[in-house]
Amino acid sequence: MKDSSRRGFMGKAFGGFAAVGAVASLYAMKKSWDPLPSVKAAGFTTLDMSAYKENELVVEKWRGKPIFVLKKTAKMVSSQTPVQAERDVMIDGSHYMIAIGLCTHLGCIPAYKPSTEDFLCACHGGQFDFSGAVTKVPPPRGLDIPPFKIDGNKLVLGEVGPEYQAMKDTGITL
Amino acid sequence: MANFTKATSIKDWLNQRLAIEKVEKVMMSEYWIPKNINFLWAMGMVLVMTFVLLLVSGIFLLMYYQPNVATAFDSVNYTIMREVDFGWLWRHVHGVAASVVFLIIYIHMFTGIYYGSYKKGREMIWISGMLLFVTFSAEAFSGYMLPWGQMSYWAGMVITNLFSGGSLHADFLVEWIRGDYVPAQAFLTRFFMLHVLLLPLAIMGLIGLHFAALRIPHVNNQDGDEIDFDVESKKYLAGDKAGSKVIRFANDFMSKDMMVVGVYLVFFFYLVFYNYGFAMDPVNFDPADGLKTPAHIYPEWYFLWSYEILRPFSVDVGLIAFGFAQVIFIGLPFLDRSPNTVPASRRGLFKYWFWAMLVDMIVLTAMGKLPPEGIFSTIGFVAAIAFILLWIALPIITKFEKKI
Ligand code: FES
Description:
- Chain B: One of its GO terms (cellular component) is membrane.
- Chain B: Pfam families: Cytochrom_B_C, Cytochrome_B.
- The structure holds two protein chains of two kinds.
- Chain A is an alpha+beta fold.
- Helices cover 32% and strands 28% of the residues of chain A.
- In chain A, the strands form three sheets. Chain A has a four-stranded antiparallel sheet, with no helix packed on it. Chain A has a four-stranded antiparallel sheet with strand order 6-7-8-9, with no helix packed on it. Chain A has a three-stranded antiparallel sheet with strand order 1-11-10.
- The longest helix of chain A is centred in the N-terminal third of the chain and has 32 residues, at 2-33.
- Chain A starts with a helix and ends in a 5-residue tail after the last helix.
- Chain B is an all-alpha fold.
- Chain B has two domains: 33-291, Up-down Bundle (Cytochrome Bc1 Complex, Chain C), CATH 1.20.810; 298-404, no CATH class.
- Chain B contains 16 helices and two strands.
- Chain B has helices at residues 10-18, 20-29, 43-62, 72-83, 87-115, 123-145, 150-161, 171-178, 185-215, 229-237, 249-274, 304-310, 315-327, 332-335, 350-369, 374-399, and strands at residues 32-34, 246-248.
- In chain B, helix 12 (304-310) runs antiparallel to helix 13 and helix 12 (304-310) crosses helix 15 (350-369).
- In chain B, 32% of the residues are buried.
- Chain A binds chain B through residues 30, 33-36, 39, 43, 59, 61, 63-66, 102, 105-109, 122-125, 137-140, 174, and chain B through 154, 157-158, 161-162, 166-167, 169, 175-182, 184, 186, 190, 290-293, 295-297, 311, 313-316, 318, 372-373.
- Bound molecules: FE2/S2 (inorganic) cluster.
């Protein structure tokens, strides 16, 4: 009797000990699967904004993702609805559309047509206007705007500046 | 310690130490198979054969494949295809088998559904089989990544994005799965690990479970007869081979299985040598480019039906419908409320249910491949709704089925 309760105790003690070990190793496994520090550190890109031409989409690369940069023409700017205007990034007096070039549906790259000034995502037929707002589903929202900081006529992607923070707070981007 | 006597033969020596005669009886000579089953029951053996082909060809590919974003594409398309002697053979065997294995799995599954082989007593056979199907799907997907072509990259992008859970925006989860912001080196290496080690291990374990689940309830038969295996096997062993309803697995039944496997292998190697192209998407012969999406993204044919269920809806509804389609088959033994274990043709409305489900899945597959425009997206939408409705209807129609 005494013997078996001692065994019971040892069983429980071992169970507890093993549980701690299991949790610890799960934690280690989770962390090992995380992105590496070198991957995270490479997450900044600086763009020189003086080089872009109006109504010409340039695709930059940040964190391996395509970044759309579109300098808006005067006509686009004047015709903008408030919803479209909110998404503007102003640098050195010019209006830009800056967005992660991955469809918010399932991540295909929409194509830009300069003639109609909009984007078409061929995967499931989603459409976006020249400011990156969605005009035809399935995409659930406009193109996401990457975190940016304005630095003179340079744009640093990956750093959060006040303009980006404001967009995030008002829910214009995620 | 057991009593060891001087061995009279190698077999006897082993038998004293490993009980091989007992194992032989359990596994082969006294493993009983009903007589009234048709060639559709041989699909299990065909699958075993295909799995072996996948394993062997995979091992040969593994020796030259390089899981590195810079070299993966060339290691497959140049080294294996051109430099390695017979490298093309392993690749084509592997590619064709990966595609054909799903055809056989679907036949195997629908045979089970048709004859009610998932019913009372056989639930674990069905559940372990469906778990195998899910693991095979993961295995196929992780393998599809490895050549690091355009379709690999973008399939990886799209499928991992599903894990953000639509409006939940669990992007951290997606980045965690990828180990990067987009599919890149970490992604390729970990999917390589999954494909060559973890998932095959899981598959082998599940195959063991699937076979074990068969041992006690025994395999079903064409008429859904309840056979008393103890009585019938005694009859057989007593010499009444013609009167018994069962036969030995080996070598009697095996000979029939092997006949089907033989026919299958002719078909299989015909594909490998003359028609391997269907298993290789042309888009995947462009190296992966994170800045350019192919015009149409579609999965391999065996995933088209569930992909089409995802497609016609808005993100969240689509994800829910997709999730539903992935898991619902597991619940089949519990959703079918009728006690009848007979072929669908002898049951009530279930007969129509079976054929409606089969046709619906074929329609979904066809629509999944076509571009999502106009009439095709309408048909796809209707078929997706029909799929869901059929599953909702199943418990109701089977409940009212008369006991046969
Ligand atoms: S990924 Fe763009 S519409 Fe689906």
